[in-house]
Amino acid sequence: MPRIGRRTFLRATGTASAGVIGALAGCTNDGDGGGNDGSDGGGGNGSSTRALKIGHLVPLSGPFATIGKPSRDGADLAVKQINSTENDVEFEVFHKDTESSPDTGVKRARELVQQENVDVLLGFGSSSVAKAVSEFAASQNVLAVATIAQTPAITGEECRTTTFRTASNLDQLTTGLSKTTAEMTDGSKIAGIVPDYTFGKATWAVFQEEMKDRADAEVVAETLPKFGKGDYQNEIQKVLDAAPDIVYTSLWAGDLISFIKQAKQYDFFEQIPEFVAGSGAITDVSRSLGDEMVEMIALDRYFFRYPDTERNRAFVEAWRDDYDEIPVNVGQETYAGVYALLRAIEQSGGSDVDSLVSGLEGLEFEAPEGTKKIRAADHQAIDENIWTGRVGPVDYADFYGFTEMAPVPGESVTPAPNCTFR
């Protein structure tokens, strides 16, 4: 599949910035906050430089590697940019494959803590892995920063002092998508095809509740395939038999790719008036499927054309320079998560775990997607916007993109804190 060329990119996003590094000045150290003295992780006199070691945990193999690899690239790009500027702390990142398994995730986290002596565990491609690693990190007094996993639990009823999320959670994302779905559709009969684990069931519960409130919807079919099942013929037929107006799915990455390919064999999308995808990672699926992609209502935590700001244009150009492709949401979110750590060090003056916690609590910082705020009350990020809308063929790339955008302000779909720190 041909990649989008630089000239095409510049036409799609507007005039290029005068220089990537200059445009990303807000994403590099522009304050006088120091690092530490290299011995106890404290201090702020800038007298020496030490490494902040980050252990990056995501699926790098199997059907969910479509999110792991761009997440890895986002971490690497942020570390490269940070280390190319004058900072009191030099970042170092180690990548480990969780295989989308909580047990493997904790095993790899233990290796990173005990063998590499990392200060931060970051990433987490699935909710079950995030929950397990959050608990492990707290037992080791190591920071855990979720940049991908959406389970509300880690910043809700299971919240821990050492756990943060620098991206929207599933309550925020699914509520925003439900709002857009209700506004863009007329149907009231809904069906769900959702993976049978924490994330899938939780998103489906939120979507049902929101659609009942907003569109007086009723559920006519519900299927809960096993996580990573791969074969969805039974689910496809059950949903078609129910003849819903709207089908919602929170399948993601390789699972959603497999589902779409199989569903097309049943003329599924010709029979279903509206297909809604709630994974929050639709661009990576679209890019993988190419011309096999289908039209739908969807959300993405980041889409490279929005917002049309100098900061975002510079980020996209820097990504293309390093990777010769367009960035997808998980890459940007992990990139932003690494920069949140830098901002926390600048804010607190130190890079030990207590200083990082202090610097992240209440932090407001700029990312390519816009302003992010991390609530001190529960360590949950609030994004400026959640990007929702219709996805279909576009003339600026070789994959399906948003043809109609309906951004939902993050503040408007963020529940009140539900956290008592452990």
Structure commentary:
InterPro entries: BCAA_transport, Leu-bd, Peripla_BP_I, TAT_signal. Residues 52-383 form the Leucine-binding protein domain. This is ABC transporter substrate-binding protein. This protein has 14 helices and 16 strands. With 422 residues, it is α/β, with parallel strands linked by helices. It folds into two domains: 6-168 and 306-383, Response regulator (Rossmann fold, 3-Layer(aba) Sandwich), CATH 3.40.50.2300; 171-300 and 387-413, 3-Layer(aba) Sandwich (Rossmann fold), CATH 3.40.50. Strands 6, 7, 8, 9, 10, 14, 15 and 16 form an eight-stranded mixed sheet that branches. A five-stranded parallel sheet has the order 2-1-3-4-5, sandwiched between helices. Strand 6, helix 7 and strand 7 form a beta-alpha-beta unit. The longest helix has 20 residues, at 329-348. It is globular.
Layout of secondary structure:
Layout: H1 6-13, H2 20-23, E1 50-58, H3 65-83, E2 89-97, H4 102-115, E3 120-123, H5 127-139, E4 143-146, E5 163-165, H6 170-184, E6 189-193, H7 198-215, E7 218-223, H8 233-242, E8 246-249, H9 253-264, H10 268-271, E9 274-277, H11 282-289, E10 296-300, H12 310-323, H13 329-348, H14 353-360, E11 364-367, E12 370-374, E13 381-383, E14 385-392, E15 401-405, E16 408-409
Parallel strand pairs: 1-2, 1-3, 3-4, 4-5, 6-7, 6-8, 8-9, 9-10
Antiparallel strand pairs: 10-14, 11-12, 12-13, 14-15, 14-16
Entry keywords:
422 residues; alpha/beta; Rossmann fold; 2 domains; eight-stranded mixed sheet; five-stranded parallel sheet; 16 strands; globular; disordered N terminus; signal; BCAA_transport; ABC transporter substrate-binding protein; Peripla_BP_I
